[in-house]
Amino acid sequence: MRASPAFRIRIRRQGLWRVAVGALLVATVSVQIAWLVARLADASLAETLAWTVMDAALVAAAAGALRVEAADLLWDTHRWRLAPAGAEGEAAVAGRLTIALDLGAWMLLRFDADEDAGAPRRRRWLPVQRRGLEPQWHALRCAVYCARPAVGHDAGAAPGAGPTSQE
Q1: Which residue in 164, 128, 151, 167 sits closest to 14, CA to CA?
Q2: Tens-digit pLDDT profile for residues 75-87
Q3: Among residues 140, 127, 137, which one has the least CA distance to residue 69?
Q4: Strand partners, 126
Q5: What are the contacts of 145-152 at 24+ separation with CB within 8 A?
Q6: In angstroms, how far is the first alpha carbon of the chain from the final one?
Q7: How far is 73 from 13, CA to CA, in rounded Å?
Q8: Residue 7 · residue 160 · CB < 8 Å
Q9: Which residues contact 113 (CB under 8 A, 6 or more apart)?
Q10: Beta partners for 157?
Q11: Tens of pLDDT along 5-30?
């Protein structure tokens, strides 16, 4: 059986992801503040402090979710690999890629590093949007849906080969 062809793409733009996370953060904090203001006369100091701490934690978590570093996603005909953008092959971590959410022009992918990979962060969420990746978008969608390891040796594929994104 012939494996899915090798594939490589640089994921940089996360505009829709940032807008969505920011909108959810603003909505959540706004609702909590409105609820607290409505109950201000009845709320104790401990309750007000607890909500303030929770809002600060939400802002910190959202700030972390907003910072998505550029990465190179590679399918080498045998397994998925993820590396920091522009890093050499040695920095790539092998793992499993699954689709968490697919909205057509935007996908949220989950990369789970293999246990033996020794990656500092075992799970990484990859928001990917069509904008900026138009020439590779179809190939990316095909790869994430159809990439299966080759059975035996596939002489036609070389690791790291395939289309790359310069954006």
Answers
A1: 128
A2: 888 888 888 877 7
A3: 127
A4: 109
A5: 145/99, 146/4, 147/3, 147/4, 147/7, 147/75, 147/80, 147/97, 148/3, 148/4, 149/3, 149/77, 149/78, 149/79, 150/1, 150/2, 150/3, 150/77, 150/78, 151/1
A6: 33
A7: 14
A8: no
A9: 82, 93, 94, 95, 119, 121, 122, 123, 124
A10: none
A11: 777 888 876 777 778 878 888 888 88
> Which two structure tokens, joined as six digits, stand for 12?
């940089």
Residue with tokens 């996603």: 73
